[in-house]
Write a structure and sequence with these properties.
Length: 156
C-alpha cells in the first residue's frame, strides 16, 4: 500500500518560472499514490501568492480542503476567507470559477483534488483565454478567445 502523510507531505516544488503573485509550492500526491483518474495536490501558499489565475474547468470538478492558514477563495459571487478544515467544491462550468490565494501574513496549506479528464478545457475570464488540455503536451494549447477561427478555415 502506498501512503503519504498530509501532516508531512513530500517536499514542495516551486517553479522558478512562476511570476510574482503565483509562487505557490506543490506536492503532487496522485501519481505518487498510483492514481490514474484522480489528482491530489497539497499546495503551500506563502503570503501574497495564489495557486493560479481565476478560472473554471469544463471537464473536472475540483475540491479544496484547508489544512492550515486562512486562504481566500475568489468565486463568482465575491471572495471569502476560509479556515482550517473548511471544504469547498468547485463544480464544472462558470459557476465553479475560482482562484485560491493567501491574503494573510502566515503561510497557508490546502489540499486540492479532482477528477483527471482528457481532453479538458479551462477558461480564464480575467485574461479572456481558453486552454485545451489533451493529455499530450505537444497538442495542448492556450489561446485568447479573440483568436478563434472559422470551422472551415484552411480546409480545401
Amino acid at each position: 500500500m502506498r501512503r503519504v502523510s498530509l501532516a508531512e507531505p513530500p517536499t514542495f516544488a516551486y517553479d522558478a518560472d512562476d511570476p510574482a503573485g503565483f509562487r505557490a509550492g506543490r506536492a503532487r500526491l496522485g501519481a505518487r499514490l498510483g492514481a490514474e483518474r484522480t489528482g491530489a495536490t497539497v499546495w503551500e501558499l506563502p503570503p501574497g501568492q495564489a495557486i493560479c489565475p481565476y478560472h473554471y474547468e469544463y471537464a473536472e470538478e475540483e475540491w479544496l480542503l484547508v489544512l492550515s492558514g486562512r486562504p481566500t477563495v475568489r468565486h463568482p459571487d465575491g471572495a471569502e476567507e476560509l479556515e482550517p478544515w473548511d471544504v469547498v467544491l468547485f463544480p464544472t462550468g462558470p459557476d465553479g470559477a475560482h482562484q485560491v490565494r493567501n491574503d494573510g501574513d502566515e503561510p497557508a496549506r490546502v489540499l486540492m483534488f479532482s477528477t483527471v479528464m482528457h481532453p479538458a478545457a479551462t477558461v480564464y475570464p480575467d485574461s479572456d483565454k481558453i486552454a485545451v488540455w489533451t493529455g499530450n503536451r505537444a497538442d495542448d494549447v492556450i489561446v485568447e478567445r479573440s483568436s478563434g477561427v472559422d470551422y472551415f478555415k484552411g480546409e480545401g
